């Protein structure tokens, strides 16, 4: 039976590398992001490699749009086997003065709409061998005074809060869904990934190596969260 991975928040870097890694194992690829042109280009690159792929443009900041896009994917490919949540929403730089709407969007993208994706995908995941939810986390999620000071100095306070919320969500979802045969796993990325929008000549991490870590987690299904590198 054909398996499908849904890449939520597709772009250059980790999400594309994860799509490639799973495609190598025979997965069909559903790419979800806001920009239709970039998605179409990515689909062409996959098709050139003999991979079945399709673009599903959607604004993942809109919970209703999340639900609709999973309906569209199910209508196109049938049941979903794996969901990879790799959505980045920025966030309020300064929690003391920043716009609350910006913080709300960051938390929605990291956590609230992750729940929307899970709820939309659950009917498929429950019936799939190898069902999984995979999440890309970030080191600012951790409670540590040095990490918190870093979030303040980088102007990334909202992002830190959003990622902390997401990290807790992964843990509780793992406890909730493991009994139903659905693996929940997270790779917490501790550094700048080469070739992404955050790489200003200071990228240290290879997206392909992170994708390999996701694949290892998926295959083993025994650990909920790991750091990369680490």
Strands, helices and their partners?
Blueprint: E1 4-8, H1 14-24, E2 28-33, H2 36-48, E3 53-57, H3 63-77, E4 82-85, H4 100-125, E5 132-138, H5 145-153, H6 157-177, E6 183-189, H7 207-220, E7 225-228
Parallel strand pairs: 1-2, 1-4, 2-3, 4-5, 5-6, 6-7
Helix pairs in contact: 1-7, 3-4, 4-6
Looking at the structure, the CATH topology is: Rossmann fold
Helix content, binned percent: 40-55%
- Write down the Rg: 17 Å
Give the helix tally: 7
| CATH C-level name | Alpha Beta
User: Structural class of the secondary structure composition?
Assistant: alpha/beta
Average of pLDDT: 93
How many structural domains can be distinguished in the coordinates? 1
CATH architecture: 3-Layer(aba) Sandwich
What is the 3D form? globular
Measured between the Cα atoms of the first and last residue, the distance is 35 Å
Q: In percent, how much strand structure appears in the residues? A: 15-25%
Secondary structure tally: strands: 7
- Largest β sheet strand count, sense and barrel closure: 7 strands, parallel
Which series of helices and strands comes N to C? Answer: EHEHEHEHEHHEHE
Strand order of the largest sheet: 3-2-1-4-5-6-7
* CATH superfamily heading: NAD(P)-binding Rossmann-like Domain
User: Segments where pLDDT lies below 50 for 5+ residues?
Assistant: none
Explain this structure:
The protein is α/β, with parallel strands linked by helices and 230 residues long. It has a single domain (4-89, 105-139, 160-228), classed as Rossmann fold. It is 47% helix and 17% strand. The chain is built from 7 helices and 7 strands, in the order βαβαβαβαβααβαβ. It has helices spanning 14-24, 36-48, 63-77, 100-125, 145-153, 157-177, 207-220, and strands at 4-8, 28-33, 53-57, 82-85, 132-138, 183-189, 225-228. The chain has a 7-stranded parallel beta sheet, with helices on both faces. The longest helix is centred in the middle third of the chain and has 26 residues, at 100-125. The model has no long low-confidence stretch (mean pLDDT 93).
């Amino acid at each position: 039976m054909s398996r499908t991975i849904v890449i939520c928040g597709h772009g250059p870097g980790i999400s594309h590398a994860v799509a490639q890694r799973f495609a190598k194992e025979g997965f069909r690829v559903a790419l979800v992001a806001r920009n239709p042109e970039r998605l179409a280009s990515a689909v062409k690159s996959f098709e050139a490699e003999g991979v079945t792929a399709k673009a599903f443009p959607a604004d993942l900041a809109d919970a209703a749009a999340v639900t609709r896009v999973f309906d569209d994917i199910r209508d196109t490919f049938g049941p979903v086997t794996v969901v990879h949540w790799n959505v980045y929403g920025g966030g309020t730089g300064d929690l003391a003065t920043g716009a609350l709407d910006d913080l709300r969007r960051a938390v929605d993208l990291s956590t609230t709409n992750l729940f929307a994706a899970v709820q939309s995908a659950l009917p498929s995941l429950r019936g799939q061998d190898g069902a999984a939810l995979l999440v890309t986390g970030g080191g600012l999620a951790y409670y540590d005074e040095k990490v918190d000071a870093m979030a303040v100095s980088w102007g990334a306070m909202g992002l830190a809060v959003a990622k902390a919320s997401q990290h807790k969500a992964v843990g509780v979802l793992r406890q909730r869904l493991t009994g139903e045969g659905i693996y929940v796993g997270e790779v917490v990325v501790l550094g700048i990934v080469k070739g992404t929008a955050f790489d200003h000549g200071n990228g240290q991490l290879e997206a392909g190596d992170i994708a390999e870590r996701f694949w290892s987690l998926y295959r083993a299904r025994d650990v909920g969260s790991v750091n990369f590198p680490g």
